[in-house]
Structure prediction request, 252 residues.
Amino acid sequence: MLSRYWLAASAALVLAACGAQAPPPEPKLDTDDAKVIYALGLMIAQRIEGFGLSEPELAIFASGVQDGVLKREKKLDPAALDAKIQAFANARRTAAAEKEKTDSAAYLAQMAGEPGATTAPTGYVMRTLTEGAGASPGPNDTVKVHYHGLLRDGTVFDSSVDRGTPAEFPLGRVIPCWTQSLQVMKVGGKYKLTCPSDIAYGDRGSLPAIKPGATLTFEVELLEIKAPATEAPAHPGAAPAPAAATPQPKAK
Prediction:
């Protein structure tokens, strides 16, 4: 994870504009180069989001970028801070996860309060949108589904429906919320599934789309149960990831 951040940081010249002094004038995106550089800044912002840097901390970050890119004298040796960098990343990720879980509590309660919704002992919430008439898969089966994956603010982070191609995956190769809940669904049915973080992506999340501690909602249509697979294709619920924002799998 850290390598991703440092690779992004090494390319972060655009962030050098956010110095500790007065804010720079609004950049003009009137050339293709300017647009590309601005887009690079947005990409880097996604990759360092997990650190939860404040504006004053971003100014310090920008100072390091300036010194590195412009070959100025370095104020310290990054290699000497390896352990502290890892500890910093872990602490920020944990803090972000706890805040997201707290912020998600009301949303999870809201989903549980919808008409017809039921809460499983492990914490996931499921509501039947269309009743299925077929069989239910077992823990070793491979399923074919269509799904939308949504953040609690309604943002779609992944969708097999939008891609136009159903997803297939073994139930043993996805996030626990999917493994558990799909076994209760029936072929031909469509369901609304809300997964708390501890049976989804946990405190690590799947950045940049899925924050640490995030509660996720999926609209899942179970299309088919297939014979147990010996090889596992790319898995959705287990790795729902945005087609646009790009972590890994998806679900609907």
Observations:
- The chain has a mean pLDDT of 82.
- Residues 104 and 215 are 6 Å apart (CA to CA).
- The two ends are 28 Å apart (CA to CA).
